[in-house]
Fold:
Amino acid sequence: MTTAAHVPGRTAPRPAGVGRAPHSPFDDRRALRRVDWGARSSAAFYRSLEAALEPRIESDPMDPVRNPYAPGAGQRPPELAGRDRELRQFEVVLERVARGRPERSMVLTGLRGVGKTVLLNTFRSMAIQRLWGTGKIEARPDQSIRRPVAAALHMALRELAPRHLAPDRIEHVLGVLKAFAQADSDPPAGRSGRAARGGARWQPGIEAPAVRGRADSGDLEIDLVELFVDAASTATDLGVGIALFIDEMQDIPADDISALCTACHELAQNGGPLIVVGAGLPHLPAVLSASKSYSERLFRYARIDRLSRGAADHALTAPAELEGVEFGPEALAALYEISDGYPFFVQAYGKVTWDHALHSPITAEDVAIAAPEAEEELAVGFFGSRYDRATPAERDYMRAMAALGDDPVQTTEVATSLGRKPSSLSPARDSLIKKGLIYSAERGTIAFTVPHFGRFLRRQPD
Ligand SMILES: Nc1ncnc2c1ncn2[C@@H]1O[C@H](COP(=O)(O)OP(=O)(O)OP(=O)(O)O)[C@@H](O)[C@H]1O
Ligand SMILES: [Mg+2]
Structure:
């Protein structure tokens, strides 16, 4: 059997004006269908399967299986483009903290889908490479950070333990950590029965016996300071540090944020090598400074933004090059135009364009053909899933915002356009902020946390 015939248009130029068949996994299935299913032995079956697939695997650079792009929350991109400055800054932070030098930790802020989680995870890998102990939490509204912090520090200490020469010191800190975890006053989330009624203590899975009288007062501020100081001292013994990564940091309840800042402040003063590295929405600095005025001296805020044209091109071309695929200059220009440089969109449009393209180099026409499908996917996954979480009143509020344009808008303007009193809209606005769909940009103004959300809403039927 010949396989070239299964890939129409792949070798011959496509006749002008004829819509191309999208290249999709179905092409592979078509090839499979032509395999001689009647082959008697399995060896013969696999030989004919190989014959069907090999030319595609070996010689087809546009194979969807090899599509390198990765649209998805927290998904590691094939190329981390345009973040060299932040990576260099974090290198310096790690080095200085491990040496006991005064240094502000970093907090990444930015809109949805700009790559905060991915960068936070990269920072974590950098810390691990330097043999630091690391742990990560994702904050949730209305959930105390005590247990997640306990679990994350447990992980960090387990990373350090095998290299520590004084096992009793590790054992002691684990005992303090256990006491800290058990000092939680809330019942375990989602559990019922004895534990929820306060009959049993939460078991954090630490074997060491709990150490009494340290980090177990029940006051998070006092307990975090003691726990951080003790944990940091074990890292000092090893000449490394501990990094606690907190994603969605704006969701930490106000009391806990304040306790966390105090603990970081305390550590910064005594030079303990433990840092908290955060990521969150653009209003996170405002949340932190409302809690503690000195928070600006604790953290260096790095605003993570859209990629420049050069970085967005690189995000697309570098992974393609590894697969022997090129982009034409017009294709890159078209992709930048529609993605606006937002990393999530770069990955989403890049992925669908690859699947639709027939040949390398990928052309602007490939982009034009792929764009509607990519938009549809974004409408369901990226925008729709968020829109669905809003109540009817919240949707009205967001639509009114969208109608006023893409820049941050005055809350009073939203009220006027809805013919309502601003105070009557506060519940809808506050709950949208809590859901992470909008944020208060400056005093009295609000904006969408999701790029291009206004445009999406304006296209929705009423
Ligand atoms: N520097 C980058 N270069 C190329 N692609 C990137 C880059 N950073 C992130 N991406 C891609 O962008 C998408 C979103 O990344 P990520 O989930 O880290 O964003 P986020 O800012 O954490 O979003 P959210 O606020 O919704 O949590 C992922 O598909 C990721 O692969
Ligand atoms: Mg994220």
